[in-house]
Amino acid sequence: MSAPIARPQPTPRKAGATAQPAPTTAATQPGARRQVAPERVSGAQSVVRALEELEVDTVFGIPGGAVLPVYDPLFDSKKVRHVLVRHEQGAGHAATGYAQATGKVGVCMATSGPGATNLVTPLADAQMDSVPVVAITGQVARSLIGTDGFQEADISGITMPITKHNFLITDAIDIPRIIAEAFYLASSGRPGAVLVDIPKDILQAQTTFSWPPEMRLPGYRPVSKPHGKQVREAARLIADAKSPVLYVGGGVIKANASAELIELAELTGIPVVTTLMARGAFPDSHQLHCGMPGMHGKVSAVAALQKSDLLITLGARFDDRVTGQLTSFAPDAKVIHADIDPAEIGKNRYADVPIVGDCKEVIVELIEAIRADMATGTTTDLTEWWAYLDGLRKTYPLAYTRPSDGALSPEFVIEAVGRLAGPDAIYCAGVGQHQMWAAQFVNYEKPRTWLNSGGLGTMGYAVPAAMGAKMGRPEAEVWAIDGDGCFQMTNQELATCALEGVPIKVALVNNGNLGMVRQWQTLFYEERYSNTNLGTHGAVRIPDFVKLAEALGCHGIRVEREEDVEAAIREAQSINDKPVVIDFIVSDDAQVWPMVAAGTSNDEIMAARGIRPLFDDDELAAEPAVIHEAMEREQRVVDSAAATDSEDNK
Length: 650
Description:
Layout: E1 36-42, H1 43-53, E2 58-61, H2 68-76, E3 81-84, H3 88-102, E4 106-110, H4 114-117, H5 120-128, E5 133-139, H6 155-159, E6 165-168, H7 175-187, E7 193-199, H8 200-204, E8 206-211, H9 228-240, E9 244-248, H10 251-254, H11 258-268, E10 272-274, E11 289-291, H12 299-306, E12 310-314, H13 320-323, E13 334-339, E14 353-356, H14 359-375, H15 383-395, H16 410-421, E15 426-429, H17 433-441, E16 450-451, H18 462-472, E17 478-483, H19 484-490, H20 493-500, E18 505-510, H21 515-524, H22 545-551, E19 555-559, H23 565-574, E20 580-585, H24 627-648
Parallel strand pairs: 2-3, 2-4, 4-5, 5-7, 6-7, 9-10, 9-12, 10-11, 12-13, 13-14, 15-16, 15-17, 17-18, 18-20, 19-20
Antiparallel strand pairs: 1-8
C-alpha cells in the first residue's frame, strides 16, 4: 500500500492581517485582474479553477459520490483551503459566518441528495439575512435525473423559493460562466444565497476553461445610484420634521456605510436606532444612539419609532419583530425608505419617499442635499424631541436582576464577556434568550462584529458561524455566545475547529432549558413547562459540557459562581491553540426584558415584568414613581425561584 499523499497547503494569511470585504472588481466581477487562455480540463478542474480566479480562499464542505470529482483537483489547489466539516449544515453556517465577518462571498460544498438537502436551512438563513453565500452541490448524472436514482434530490426545485437564484449546469463548457454569475448574483444588489448544482457526468467530462467568461444575466440590473429628485424630497422632509429618527437596518453594514451614517447623524443631530441585524453599524457609545428597537429592544428605541413624525429608513425592511402590530406602528410618521431591493419598498409600510439604491450612495447624496439646504439657512430644532427620548433613556435603561443566593445571572455573564473581549472581538449568537441578551448587553462599536441568525432564527447557528468568522478574520478574537439548546445542534463542529486549528471561544449560557420557550410558557401558558427542560442542569447534567468539550479536542471550563466569571473568561482568552468552551451554569428563571408580546402594538412594551412605560397619557402604564417597587417585587420573584431550585437540588 502506497503512502498517503499530503495535500498542498494554501499560503497562510500573515499574522495581524485584517481580512477586508472583497472589492467589486476581482471577486465579484470576474476577470478584472487577469486573462487566462483557453485550456483543456475536466469539468471538476474547471470548478476549482473558477474558484481560484474568483479569489476564493476557503471552502467548507464534505465530499460524497456525486461531488467527489471536484475533490481530486481541490486536493492539488494551493489557493483554496477546504475545511472538512462534520455536517453540511455546519458548512452552510460557516460560509455565512465567513461572509458576514469579511464581506466576501462564503462558499460551501456538498454532495447530492442528503448532502444537498442538509444545506437547505443555512441557505434559507443566508437568504433571509441577505448574506452572500454560494453553495456548490454535486448531482447524479444527467441520465439518472428524474429516475429516483441513488442519492438523487431535486435540490434546484427544493431551493428555488429560498435562494436568490440557482443553477443546474447541463454542459461542462458553462461551468466558468455560471460560477462567475453565481458569485456576481450573490454579492451584488441585495446579497443572498445562490446554489450551483452540477451533475457528476458534467464534472467528469472534458471541457475548455478560459477566463474571464462573458456573463449572461439578461434583466438583472441592480440599481445602486439613487434618483436625485427622491433624495432632494427626502432632504425636504427631514428639514420639516420635528421628531425624526434614523431607522437603520442591516443594509447599512452590507453597503459598508457606517462612516457615512455617523456623518449623517452628526450633521443632523437625529436620533439613531439600529435593528438586530444592524448592531455595530452605529457605535453604541455615541450620544445619538437610542439603541435597538423591536420585540426585545430598548424602551427609548421603541418609543423613538412609535412617536416619530418621520422614519428615515436605511437598509431596513419593517420586519414584524421591529414593527409589532403593523397597523399601530409609528402611526404619525411619514416614511423615507431607502433600500437596494425595490421589492422591499412599500411591502409592509407605505413609503412617502421611496429611494432605490445602495445605502452608502443614498447617504452620501442625502448629506449633500441636507448641506445644501443648511446653506440657505434651513435648520431643525430637535430640543423637545431629545428631551423626551433622554427622559426615557434615563428612566428605562437596560437592566437586570441578580439572584440573591449567588446564582449566576446570564446577563452578567454576557456583559462580562463583552467587557473583557472588547469592541474588536466578533460575537456570534445562536437563537433565543442568549441571542437577545448578547444584542443588549454587549456594546458594539464597529460593523461586522455581531453575527446572528435574525430572519430565520436558526438554532445551531453560533458555533459553525464563529468557525467561519475566525477563518475569515484569524486575527480577531471570536466568541460564540450560545445556549445549551442551540449548542447541542451543531457542537460537533468544535471537532472541526480543533483539527483545523481554529481557536474560537464558546460562552455557553446553560440554563438547563429551551429558555425563550420557557419564558413564553411562564408568561402565556400559566407556567406549564411542556418539553423545555433539557436535563443539562442540576445533578443530571446530560451531557456534561466540560467532558464533551474535552472529547471534541477543546478546553472545557465550568463556572457556577459570579466571582469566578472573569477568571474563566481570561483563562479562555489566554488559550489560543485550541477552542475553549465555558459552561456557565445560570438561573433557569431569567427572562429577557423589555418585551413586546408577538402580535401586539409597540405601545404595549413592558420594560420588565409588571413595568410598563408611561407613553403620553396612557392610564394603563406604570408611573415612573412605582418602578422601584415593581423592581423589588421582581427581585423577590427571582429570589424565591432560586431558593426553590436550590432546595430541589439538595
